[in-house]
Structure formats: structure tokens, C-alpha cells
Amino acid sequence: MQQFGYSIKRSLRSIEGIFWALVFPLFLGLIFKFMFGNLGTYEQFSEVAVGVVEQTENDVFVEMLKEIEMEEDLHMFEVFEYENVDEAEKALQNETVYTYIVVDGDEFTLMIRKMDIYTSLVKSFVDQYKQNYTLIEEVAKKDPKQAVAFATNLFDSDSIGLEEIELKGQDKSPYTQYFYALLGMACLIASMYGLGHGMDLQADMTTIGARRNVAPTPKMQQFVTDFLASMTMYSVLMTIVLVAVVYVYGQDFGDNFGLVWLVTIVGTFTGLAGGYLIATWVKGPKGKKEAMCIAFFMVSSFLGGLQMAEMPYILEEKCPIINRINPATLLVNAYKSLAVFGDYQQYAVNVISLLVIGVLFMIFSVAKLRRTKYASI
Amino acid sequence: MVVKIENLVKRYGDLVALDHFNLEIEEGEVFGLLGPNGSGKSTTINCLLALLEYDKGTIEVFGEEMTPTSYESKKNIGVIMQNVAVFDELTVYENIDYFCGLYIKDKNERKKLVEEAIEFVELQDYRKFRPKKLSGGLLRRLNIACGIAHKPKLIILDEPTVAVDPQSRNKILEGIQKLNQEGATVIYTSHYMEEVEQICTRIAIMDKGKNIALGTKDELKGMIDLGETISVEILELPEAVKEEIAHLPHVMNVTYENHLLKVRFSKGKHNLIRLLDVLKEKEIGFAGVHSELPTLNDVFLEITGKELRD
Amino acid sequence: MQVFKLYFKLLRSNKGILIMYFAIFLTVALVISNAQSVDGNNNQEAMKEEILTITIIDEDQKSFGNGLKEYFSSGNDIVDMEYDEQKILDKLYWRKLDYALVIPKGFEESLLDEDVKDMTLKCMKVPGYFDASFFESELSLYTSKLTSLLKAGYSVEDAQKQLLDLQDEQTKVELATFVNANQNDKSTTFLAYVPYLFITLGMNGIGLILLTFNAPLVRARMECSSTTMKTRIAGLVGGILLYGMLLMVTVIVVVAIVSKGRIFMDVRFPYFLINMFGMLLFSLSLGFFTGTIAKNQDAVNGLVNVLSIGLCFLGGVFVPYEFFGDAVLKVAKFVPTYWYAVTNTKIGAMTEMTSGLANDIFWQVGLVLGYALVIFSVTIVIIANRRKQTA
Questions:
Q1: Which of the 8 DSSP states describes residue C261?
Q2: Residue-level pLDDT at C378
Q3: Residue A64 backbone dihedrals phi, psi, to 5 degrees
Q4: How many CB pairs (< 8 A) connect A and C?
Q5: What residues of chain B lie within 8 A of the CB of A370, using their CB?
Q6: Chain A contact present for B14, CB below 8 A
Q7: C235 belongs to a structural domain
Q8: Can you list the domains of chain B with their CATH numbers?
Q9: A-contacting residues of C 220-259, CB under 8 Å?
Q10: Which residue of C has its CA nearest to A346?
Q11: Segment A101-116 mean pLDDT
């Protein structure tokens, strides 16, 4: 118990430990919150800037372009009219508009810098306009009497209703993924704790390790005490991070906070075990091991989508095995299962995989740690 | 018998670190392990503590074979490592308490022991300090307190005075003697022969993994022929006189360098008088005369043909 | 000269860690950029729209379903699936499917018969996923046209045939002449990640070495020596610059490889270099600063991760700055990595140098260099002050 207490005390007083476990994730979270909290434009497609050059006039088209609404009081396009192509070209070049349309009566040409979601939207509109125009002509050819009714119909008629089979999760934002990856990383940073503790148990790595090896308290007992203390300590820190992300940064992790918490703790265990693994198996000075440790959680988080949320989907195409064994991805997916899909089966698969990996790390570490005699010190 | 090492062999690849090494240490001794760097002192200690694998031999501590799980024996051993081994995040008090806690589970007893240890190393004023704020000497003293707080019967000190200022060093040496007086057996390794001579009751001299000489310091010095070394400051010494001195009885060898004549005599009487007689007879003026009894360095030199410290 | 030489000795003794960092960060940058690049040698490639993977589950088994599949199969990937929510969920989960549409039994009848209440289609999708909403708007345009045609007396088959014919009527899209068709090629996307590379490698490499220089005893010894502070700093800066060249050369080699050597013939190459050079000096001065103020390895590691990730997110290196909202954009404008990213995109899209672009590059790279200079000067001031304190 005394050992446990001191182990906790040491973690609490370690500025580096607190930095990595608490400050770093919360700082990144703040950046994410700031960035993704303000990324609305892409989502709601607020007015897309479009240039128009009328070589041969087509007032109906231009009027429609201006008037079409995405939803109540939200125009789809912001229209800039230009006298000639040169002006429009200039506007395109200095990024005033995403694209400009050269209108030559019923012929339209779209000039773009690159094809993206905005230009697609414009193209789709022009396509529709032309197609509707053609349709009216067709109908008129077949039965001129119908033509006017049809035209009115065409612009007013409702499309067929679409009923969404709702997923069981709550989260509707594509950016919460970054927070999943962030928490995944925070859990894995526990490896830094594991590394320190692992090294301080081995006589051939630190003098403290030697001193603890010659004490009458069995090594495994010291290991378990340390481990439980780090688990306790780090779980508390992770709970703080989790609570901050959910309640302060307002990220939706789904209804079941208990399960979200559970996977966070399992992730912490796996992270910690990863640190022990590096401490026991990597040879060399402390600096090298720390670098390995940082590499472990950063690479894992990268593969889990910390820098680019699409990463796991790309891997799913190219090398799906990584998604099944990478701790950060498993964490991200467990969160996603709960928050987006409400899919407990997927959740369970991820949590169990994570646990299995953690246990494997631990078994390998303990195998090395159990050794009480060393070939050289 | 506190420690008994028989036929211990330890190899690092091709290098033989301990070569059929034998050692017996009795209760109440302050036993010195003396030898140059790389002679196998630390290896011996680490084998003794069951930290190192060894190739051959047996080690017994308190009459039991020493293994990593010899917890009963370990309870009675205190170790002070060459490098300071304390947690930076814990205070002086907490560090001692932590390491003592690995030995003593009872809280009240431990509290008493920790206080005693702090007093013993005179760190009372630094109780709440973190190790980073302690100077080198104080840090060493903390290191020692961590090793001995549980009042072990056998204390092993592996070069505890490396890079320590003279004042702290004397404190440490006095402390060791005090611990011994309180009943602890001490094993002390060092390559400082003066320290070993000063405090050890029995000494083993190690070289290349072998125990090359063993005994009290007088016994060790008795082992060699050298009785005394006499040095005389002389401005000028003709070669013929040097020859004549070399032929005096008991003279082992004669050197004359930098106006200093050094004559090594084997054991015998009237060596100084005979030497001075020759100088007087030849009318050679001299200034200071010093006579030195043999040191452990001389012992080492005579057995191995090299100096203890290179 | 001594300091300079020592710098490289230390670099060599740390080569294990450095090689690891190089390998990791290079791989990261290559993987991300590869995923985002479009190897466009022609306009068609560069202008391709997103391909969606859609399943249309037809429980009605009438002509409507077939027509729908036929219509949307151009430009999209239509896969066949059974109606099994769990299976669909699994595919949506891994984005192996973007959208699932279910046509319920009796749907077509409800369309045609005025007396039968209209039925709705059902769908499953990942919420908030842009590609899915795009498909939905296309679908709604299709169905509204379809219902209009039906009202005008068309049969379902005829109406769908009519709509299919219409599909060929696509608006002509042309890439503006001032745009380089290779704007999203591997070189450009890889170079977009250079700030991450330079900042992490620069700070790690320099930090690692300066820690040794700044160890209190080493520093004291140097300050006692007859070497003047000027030569000492000059030595350090020289070492840092040469290390920077190593970084630059590494990146150029990688770009040469990903572009299969074409980069050297590319008009954009010299301008890429100028932009990179600005970022390089910024990263190096950041490394100089970190190595000077950090007390230990942990502090260096902490600063590296906070600064590299922070700057790269805020600067639009990880999440493209095109998506930034106004508030973020305001902040991003204070971040040098943002100006690097903007310049890189502009250079990537250029076909020839214009005065406007030259002006942009001049000011934007100048801004980054300004940051570098400020950080560098602050560091020098810190070093000078520290000397006074020790004296």
C-alpha cells in the first residue's frame, strides 16, 4: 500500500507525465474544437460564388441561378456577372469565384480551377437546367397541350419522399472522428508511464532497478503495485480528458458514457502495456526508448486518423489487417461504433481486440520482467 | 559465516571477469575488496546480490544459497550502489521511506527507522528537499540512507565515495565504522587504498577476476619482502655511491631521480643508519630524509608488477 | 569551427534516433500525400468527380428499380446487396459503401395509382457525410423529373428512358488556361506536407544536439574558453544551416522519386524551392529556439509535438484550408504554415510566372522568413542574456 501511494505520488509530481497525459491532449482538443467548430461552411454549403459571362443573353437561366434556394432563405449561389471572359478569368484566378459560366444562349461552358464539391454543385445545376429545358421540348413535341402543365409541374413538383433508416448513434458530425483519434492517442500516451516504470524495475537498466531487485519484496509484487498505481492514476487523468472532450468541448460520444469510459480505460491499459513492452524489449539508452515510445503512439494515432480522418478507410482498402491490430484505430472505431452507429457488436469486437493486444503486450513484457538475473549490468 | 563464495566464474563473452574466485567473510568484519577498475569488484558484488548470472560456483549468504528469491537473506542486506539511485519526484524523507518500505512493512517501525537513518546521515534539515536540489555530497548521503535505513546485518557498499568531496568522504567512512560497531558486517569495494586501509579489518586484493591476496592489512604487508622505503633528498649522487648503496644488506633496489634517492629495503634492522653512514662517509650532503612503511599499493605492485592506480 | 565540427559529431552519435524520425515522418507525409494526389496528366483526370459506392436494394422488382440502377451506374459504383441492416452498417462503417437505397415492395404501384398512398424510398447513410448528401440531391432531382413525366402521361419505362437519354447532356467543363493540370500531382501534395517534416525533423534534430551544448557544465566550459560568443553562435548557426540543407536535399530527393524525375524539368520547381526554403528557415529557427530553452529531452519532445501538430492543423496542412471557417481563417493568417500551404497550392496550380503570382510568393515567403527572423533574434537574445547571468 505504501508502495502504491508513492507510485501515485511520483506520477502526480512528474511534470512530464502530466503534460503528456493531460495538457497535450487537451491542447490539441482545443485546436480541434476551434477548427472544426468553425468549419461549418463546407457542411451547409452556404452560397457558392459563381461568375457569369453572357455572350448571348439568357435571362431565364441567370435569374434562376440567382434565385435558387438551398433551403429557406439560403441561396445556393452568389452570382457575379462579368462583361467579358477576361474579367471572369481574372476573378477565377484571384479566387473571387469558384467557377464561371460562359452563357451562349442555350449553350453553357463551365470554366474551373479544379473539380471540387463546389464546382460539382454548379455543374449539377447547369445540367439540370439544360435537361429540364430539353424535357419540356420533348414533351411539347409529343403533346403540345401538356407542355405548359408539365413545365409548371417540373419546377414545382416534389421529389419522391426519402425516409432515412436512422442509425442508432447520435453523432452527425464528420469531425468528431478527430476527437476519437485524439482520445485514442491520449490513451496510448500511457505508454510513457509504462516505459518509466518498466525501466525502473530492471537491474540492468537503472540503478533504481538494481536496488529494487535486491530488496526482499518480490519483483512481481513491485511490478503489480506499480502497474495498478499507474492504471489508477492514468485512468483518472483519462477520465478528466474524456469529460473535458465530451462536456467542455461538447463532442458527442453517444448516450452510453459508461461504455465510452470502459474502452478508454482498456485503451489506457494497452498503452501502458505498450510502454512496458518497449522498456523490456528495446535495447539502448533512455532517449532512444523514449523516442520509440513517442513513435509508437504517434504512428499508431496517425494510422488511426489523427492527422487525416480518412486514414483507416484508405487502409481498409490497401491493408485491412492494420485496422484490426492498430490500437489507435481500434479505439477510434470503438468510439465510432457507439457514437455514430450505436453498434454494440462492432464495439465489442474492437474493445476485445484492444484488450487482447494489451494482454499480449503485457505477457511479453512480463516474460522479460520476470527474469531476475541478468547476463550483464 | 556471513558470506561464502566458492569457485565463482563469470564470463562476458571471451572476457573472464571472475576466475575461480573464492571469498569468506565473517560476522562483524569490515571487509575490503580492493582492486583497480575492471578487476571484478562490482561483478563480485552483483553476483553476490543474485543480480548477475554466473557460469560456475556457489554463493552463500547467511549460510543459505543466494538466489533472486532468497527474500529472508535479502531482508538483512543493505546495498549502496555506486550510482545514486533515488526517485527525482520524491523528497528525501519519501525516498528513504519508499526503499525502506521494500524491506519493512510495519508502518510505525518504518517511521522510526527512517528518522534514525535521516539522523544518521545528518540530513535532518533536508527532509522535504527533492534530490535535484541536493549537492553531490548530500545526494550520496541520501543514497546511503536509502540503503541502510532498514538496519541490515550485512551492508554492501560499492565504491560509495567516487566523486565525493573529502569532508563528505570522511563522514561516510566514519558512518561505516559506526554501523560496524553497531553490529553490521560490511563489505566495501574501492580502488582507493587509503580508504580501505583506514577502515577495513580484512582485505582481499583483486586483479583480473582473481583474489590475489587476502588478510588484515598487516598480514598483507607481511606477505611481501618490502620492509620500508627510505627517500633522501640529495643534490648530486655519483654513480659509484649509488652502486655502493645497492650493495648494502637488505637493499632491494635503488633509484635516483629528480634529486631524490629512493631505497627499498627488505625487512631488517638498522637500514637507515647504514644508509646514512655511507652518505656521511662519502661526504655527500643531504636534506630531508623520509621513511615509509609499505602501503597496499606496494603489496599490489609486488604481486602483480603494476600500480594499483594507473 | 570547433563548435561546427562538434555539431556534426553529435549528429552522428544521434543518428539512430534521427534515422527513425526521418523514416517515420517521411512515410507519414508520403502516405497522406499519396492518398490525396491525383496523378493528372490530362484534364480529364484532374476533373473527375467523386465516385460513390451505392447499393440499390430493389424489393419491388419492377422496372423503376432497374431504371434507377441504370441511371446512376454512370459515374458511380453500384453494388448488389441483400437487405441486411447489420451488413449494410458494417460496410458503411468502413466506407466501403457510401449510400444504401431501399425500394420497398409495391413502390412502383404507389407511384402510378393515384388511389394508393405514395410510398417513400428508404435509405441508410453515414450521417454528416458530404458524399452521401450529394447523391441524395441528385436522386431527388431525378425523382422529381420522373414524377412530372409520369403526370404528363409517360409510362415508367418511357420516362426513365427519356431521363437516361438526358444524362448525356452534360455541361462542358474546361480547366482554365492559367491552371496547371498537374496541380494535384504527387509532388504538390507531398510538398504540402513539408512543413510537418521540416518542423518535426528540424526541432528534433537541432533540439537533440543543442541539449548537449546547453548542458550546464558544457556551456560553462565553452563560455570560459577563448572562443568568442560570436564565433560560437556562428558555429552553431552554421551547423544548423547545414543540417537544414540535409533536410532540404532529403525532401528534394523524395520529390524527384515521386515525380519520377519530372520535377527537375517542371516550371514550378524553382518556386517550390523558394517556398520550401522559407519554411526551412522557419523550422530551423524554431529548432534553434527549442534547443535553447528546453532543459531536457522531455521538454523537446513536448514542444515538438505541440508545435508541429498545432501549426500543421491551424496552417491547413492536415485539414485543407479551403474548408476553414472565417474565424479559423483569421487565426490561420497568423500562422506561417498557412502561408506556406497557400503558396504551395498556388505554385502547384501555375503554368507560368505572372507578376501577380510573383508578388504573392514574394510577400508570403517573406512573411514566413519574417517569423523565422523574429524567432532567431529572440533566441540570440536569450543566449546573450544567459551569458550575462552566468558571468
A1: T
A2: 95
A3: -65, -40
A4: 260
A5: none
A6: no
A7: yes
A8: 3-221 (3.40.50.300), 225-293 (3.30.70.100)
A9: none
A10: C90
A11: 87
Radius of gyration of chain C (CA): 29
B154 has pLDDT over 90: yes
Q: Band of the pLDDT at A9, cuts 50, 70, 90?
A: confident
Judging contacts by C-beta atoms under 8 Å, the chain C residues touching residue A254 are: none
B74, B90, B98: residue with CB nearest A216: B74
Q: Is A42 on the interface with B (CB under 8 A)?
A: no
Q: How many CB atoms lie within 10 A of CB A8?
A: 16
Q: Looking at the 3D structure of chain C, how many domains does it have?
A: 2
- Residue whose C-alpha cell reads 627510505 in the numeric block: B230
* Cell 507510485, residue located: A7
Judge whether B187 and B156 are in contact, CB under 8 Å.
yes
A158 by Cβ neighbours in 10 Å (0-12 / 13-18 / 19+) ranks as exposed
- A376 found inside a domain: no
C173 lies in some domain = no
CB of C268 less than 8 A from some CB of A: no
With respect to residue C176, please indicate whether it lies within any of the assigned structural domains: no
Mark yes or no for CB contact B68/A373 under 8 Å: yes
| Closest CA–CA distance from residue B77 to any residue of chain A (Å) | 8
Contact A237, A245 (CB under 8 A): no
Give the pairing of strands A107-112 and A162-164.
unpaired
pTM above 0.90, yes or no: no
Stretch among A198-202, B216-220, C387-391 having the lowest mean pLDDT: C387-391
pLDDT at B186 over 80: yes
A chain contacts of residue C183, beta-carbon cutoff 8 Å:
113-114
Averaged pLDDT score across all residues of chain A? 86
Share of chain B above pLDDT 70, in %: 99
Question: B68 and A376 in contact by Cβ < 8 A?
Answer: no
Range of the domain at C80: 50-167
User: Which chains form contacts with chain A, at 3 or more CB pairs under 8 Å?
Assistant: B, C
Cβ(A75)–Cβ(A67) below 8 Å: yes
